[in-house]
């Protein structure tokens, strides 16, 4: 097992990464201070992992469960209310601990429920997808979608601990493994060129879930994220670099309807757009672009926007993105491979050409 | 105008109290850092105060409004979602400022919306009822009710500023003035015996809204609350004393259905129960009890629980109260007039007798 710490003063917490560690009760006992536990999960994850966890924790705690429907389209206020109702019906008090057992959707919703149940109770993240293990379970962003925008309702709220069991990737569909790999690759692109090179050399082993290598990739990803979050918990500045590809990506997700494109898939296509724009600004070389595209393709990710999505659709969606400050579009771009920055300083012609070329390429693709 | 500061490190904020100050634009400009403002209010308050405020702020900002239905029964997730929809439809970004113009219900909901819109945007409280001026607008508690419990969903979230215009009490129904006075009297009881005596001597002038005296009463109340909140922002300890009468009071409110008994009315009847229990424990004298009851009566507040509410109903409701830790009932009681403490150390016989006597007295009352 490997351990790292997210350093946020009195809101610091440990991240544990290893094979089979969801069955190490001590990792949970350290983080639970009351007598009640509510495990929030979804139907798919429950079938694999819920019974074991309930059995383990029931030895010491009142354990209740809340099983949500599976899918991004259920990441709504209505589902969030269902968690609140479960907590109240089982008479959970302010010392209860919420455990989020599942992917990013479960983690975001259970985290927001924990942040706002009786004005805040502790919670533990047990992310079961690669995406949530390397991204959403670390850093304290919680929330739900609104029909008018993704993640528009939520809070910054840190967990007590994150328990990442790499074994849970064995039951993950390949498409979701790829989606998670988009975020892993992102860390190399934004802040760690050697890690990017390591990924190029090991991507095939990662895609077949080589245990040691997947643990390393998750550890490096969480470490990168933890460093950025420690510097800027509430995204006043540097944290924004974690959103490489996300402004384009959110536009794609929203346009296609939540859940039709996976988050990581939309981010992959968005990342290619961001790198292409970085190249047009003279920041990165054609080789950098080609290497990035090649790595994303090896991870079986889309590198083009959805066929038929117009430039107007992109711009309309992006204007409502949280990263749009006072109406001016700001993007995370690369200064070099392994170094990201945030800017609104680019020529509109370059921006339009970047989008138009990608839209054209998508139209041509079979 | 009088000013005081709630001291919470980088979340500190000023409270301004005075006649007509809702029209002092500088108080708002200091606290608004973006270009957008969303005024959240209700139908009743809007009729009196919205037009002026929109006109004043429109000189400098994009001003949008969200007018909610009036009443505690609308303090729900559905109404909260309506605020979120208004913000999104008017394309408010993360630099917007939410202004809560109204009583406690508006303040709690607008505050919770601000706490969770795009994971948190600034807000300003402009409380228009006495209750919200002396209680809910100060201290950062925000939230909505759930059908299974009052204020069960919410967050601690501090405003940028609180602007208390005493002129807005002129349009307040007398019953709501009384309800607010219950909280004013509470501050005397829990931490300020001289203020309690001052209230006894000035209650008649306060009930007729003598300007100087009402400003003094609000100032002393906010000062008392600010001191307690500065010591214990998230109610880990001392802050609980602010809940004198509230455990009984919430049981009454919930049992009667939200909004049928005003919060302050339920707190008044609950306060009498708490003082009576304090007397049974030998903490306060019969004279203290009589003085408290007399002052509450002069403020035209109920001093008995609702006719027909049984002991079982009280206990059942109280077991789900947020202040019940791990199933043991804890109460805020008086050690002396002007000094509160939190305890679960009381004989069940005393507790039962306290409730039974009050229930009996309520049954006898005409």
From TrEMBL, chains A, B:
- Name its co-factor(s): NAD(+); Co(2+); Zn(2+)
NCBIfam families given for it? aroB
Identify its protein family.
Belongs to the sugar phosphate cyclases superfamily. Dehydroquinate synthase family.
Gene3D superfamilies, per this entry? 3.40.50.1970, Dehydroquinate synthase-like - alpha domain
Please tell me where NAD(+) binds in this chain: 70-75, 104-108, 128-129, 141, 150
Residue ranges constituting the 3-dehydroquinate synthase C-terminal domain according to the UniProt record: 180-324
Kindly list the places in or outside the cell where this protein is found, as annotated in its UniProt entry. Answer: Cytoplasm
Example GO molecular function term?
3-dehydroquinate synthase activity
- EC number(s) recorded for this UniProt protein: 4.2.3.4
Name-wise, this protein is 3-dehydroquinate synthase
Q: Which reaction does it catalyse?
A: 7-phospho-2-dehydro-3-deoxy-D-arabino-heptonate = 3-dehydroquinate + phosphate
Where does the record place the 3-dehydroquinate synthase N-terminal domain?
66-178
> What pathway or pathways are given for this protein in its record?
Metabolic intermediate biosynthesis; chorismate biosynthesis; chorismate from D-erythrose 4-phosphate and phosphoenolpyruvate: step 2/7
Its predominant location is cytoplasm
- CDD domains assigned to the protein according to its UniProt record, in alphabetical order: DHQS
Stated role: Catalyzes the conversion of 3-deoxy-D-arabino-heptulosonate 7-phosphate (DAHP) to dehydroquinate (DHQ).
What Pfam families would the database entry show? DHQ_synthase, DHQS_C
Leading EC class: lyase
> Which keywords does this Swiss-Prot/TrEMBL entry list?
Amino-acid biosynthesis, Aromatic amino acid biosynthesis, Cobalt, Cytoplasm, Lyase, Metal-binding, NAD, Nucleotide-binding, Zinc
What's noted on cofactor binding?
Binds 1 divalent metal cation per subunit. Can use either Co(2+) or Zn(2+).
Keyword presence, Magnesium: no
Please give the InterPro entries that the UniProt record associates with this protein.
Dehydroquinate_synthase, DHQ_synth_AroB, DHQ_synth_fam, DHQS/DOIS_N, DHQS_C
Name the HAMAP family for this protein: DHQ_synthase (MF_00110)
